[in-house]
Design a protein that fits this description.
The protein contains 12 helices and 15 strands. The protein is an alpha/beta fold. The strands form 3 sheets. Strands 3, 4, 5, 6, 7, 14 and 15 form a 7-stranded mixed sheet that branches. Its cofactor is Zn(2+).
Amino acid sequence: MKGAVLSAFRAPLEIRDLPEPEVPEGGVVLEVLACGICRSDWHVWSGGDPVDLPHVPGHEYCGEVVAVGEGVTRWAPGDRVIAPFILACGTCPSCASGRQTICPDQALPGFTRAGAFAQRIAVPFADANLAALPPWMDPAIAAAMGCRVTTAWHALTGRAALAPGEWLAIFGGGGIGLSALMLGKALGAKVVVVDIVPEKLNYALSLGAEAVANAAATDAAAAVRDITGGGADVAVEALGVEETTVSALKSLKKLGRMVQVGMPAGDHVTMPIPMDAVYAGQLALFGTRGMPSWRYPSLLNLIEARGLDLSPLVSRRVRLSDASTELAAFDGPAAPGVAVITDLSS
């Protein structure tokens, strides 16, 4: 099978013929239908989130079951499924209590094991994690359900408890930001998006944002407080950098809630934050990472019931050999929307 291999950090991925993945006990092998190219993949590619090399990246995927391991009861060859990027073991106390994202025995394709920048991928713990791919959903959209859409959904509903009529401030107009925008609107929130790329801000307006703020031209936190009449109820930080984290906290009204979605890496692993704002504003600060797989039904039901069109999230359908170019683009301001690998043969 073909796969894209990272042999050195910040080097172009090499398209190679790779051995077929072995079928794990309790797991399946998937024919990859689509795989997103995410900023978290860029952290791996750039060395900010170092992995053992050589390595196959890719954590945001959907696929068709082609082989089933011993012990699997829910899935059979031919089933089309969505896989969360955190594959929880399904048996530990954390999993038993529904907190799969903190499972101590979790597997992370694209990070701790071979990922989905390849034609096929081995997926452990299949019964505990996989969800059926709805027949009405485009695989390119379903790929984003493995990370960006699901992460945004859990941030808004499982952590911050966003309510209808509240103001939601989103710092970062990339894949997470766009997902949070569309889901926030579907939940009845009013949304302001902050970014430094005019094209991303215009795109956010076209998708229904009530307002935008260009952080390159204004004090973003002050702009959000002005737009919302005193501060946002909920802020989502979607980049993982100090400047946007501080601005997100300072954009909140008293008793506001902020969710740190962006992964701090490299120079941003440790960052100073305005604890005086947290104290005086009695703010709540949540960290979040992924989504427990048992929450797929609520998300899919919302998308179907509301007729929520997530297609604007995917702006580029690319080949496996284009992955290096897309990863390098994260070094600077990226174009609106996300890239998804839909041709894994070249």
